[in-house]
Design a protein that fits this description.
The complex is a heterodimer of chains A (114) and B (114).
Chain A (H helix, E strand, L loop, with lengths): L3 E2 L4 E5 L4 E7 L6 E7 L6 E7 L4 E3 L3 E6 L4 E6 L8 E11 L2 E6 L3 E6 L1
Parallel strand pairs in A: 2-11
Antiparallel strand pairs in A: 1-3, 3-8, 4-5, 4-9, 6-7, 7-8, 9-10, 9-11
Chain B lengths: L2 E5 L2 E4 L5 E8 L5 E7 L5 E9 L2 E4 L6 E6 L2 E6 L8 E10 L4 E5 L3 E5 L1
Parallel strand pairs in B: 2-11
Antiparallel strand pairs in B: 1-3, 3-8, 4-5, 4-9, 5-6, 7-8, 9-10, 9-11
The chains are: A mainly beta (114), B mainly beta (114).
């Protein structure tokens, strides 16, 4: 079935670098996308979202880019800090049998070295 | 503000024993509620969702069941646990934001079936 996947399972960066986490989605009907951060042993936390009619959205130190042509989503983290170390999930939202369904990718682990 | 409570945080159960995980949401009415399971190092798999009291939809065939006896209470159960039921279980509720429906997760229950 339709799925959301990630290009890099693990990303290692130095503190202060910019990080880019990528995600590919396959459902062209998806109209809403969310990035979540999950620290070890905790539930995922909402980071930032974007609708399909947008190309870019910025938050505090984070930017999400959406390329609908190639069905690609990315999360950019500026000046990465050790506290950013976590697993990051992208999720796509589409209508399925009358219900808004959120499908999660496998996740990318971000490791930040001091 | 809305909060979600999930318990217990960790649980070790023998094969064949029953299971009951509880989740409650505060500060909102008639939320959509969800149970997800996450295998170690993997993504989130939707197990059940509920749009109202007594209304449960199952996403995948499995050894588990869910119930919603009250508006803000969601329970995940099993009569006889299997080894394959081990995992990290997450309860979530959703809210319709400006751009789409966001999920907010509880802190999770780490279930080990031995």
């Amino acid at each position: 079935g339709e799925s959301v996947g990630l290009h890099l399972p693990t990303l290692s960066v130095q503190e202060g670098d910019n990080s880019i986490i990528n995600c590919a989605y396959s459902n062209s009907a998806s109209d809403y996308f969310i990035w979540y951060k999950q620290e070890s042993g905790k539930g995922p936390q909402f980071i930032i979202d974007i609708r399909s009619n947008m190309d870019k959205r910025q938050g505090q130190r984070v930017t999400v880019l959406l390329n609908k042509t190639v069905k690609h989503l990315s999360l950019q983290i500026a000046a990465t800090q050790p506290g950013d170390s976590a697993v990051y999930f992208c999720a796509e939202n589409y209508m399925n049998t009358g219900f808004q369904k959120l499908v999660f990718g496998t996740g990318t682990r971000l490791l930040v070295s001091p | 503000s809305q909060t979600i409570h999930q318990w217990p945080a960790t649980l070790v159960q023998p094969v064949g024993s029953p299971l009951s995980l509880e989740c409650t949401v505060e500060g909102t009415s008639n939320p959509n509620l969800y149970w997800y399971r996450q295998a170690a190092g993997r993504g989130l798999q939707l197990l059940f969702y509920s749009v109202g009291i007594g209304q449960i939809s199952s996403e995948v065939p499995q050894n588990l069941s869910a119930s919603r006896p009250q508006d803000r209470q969601f329970i995940l159960s099993s009569k006889k646990l299997l080894l394959s039921d081990s995992g990290f279980y997450l309860c979530a509720w959703s809210v319709q934001g400006a751009m789409g429906e966001k999920l907010f997760f509880g802190s999770g229950t780490q279930l080990s079936v031995l």
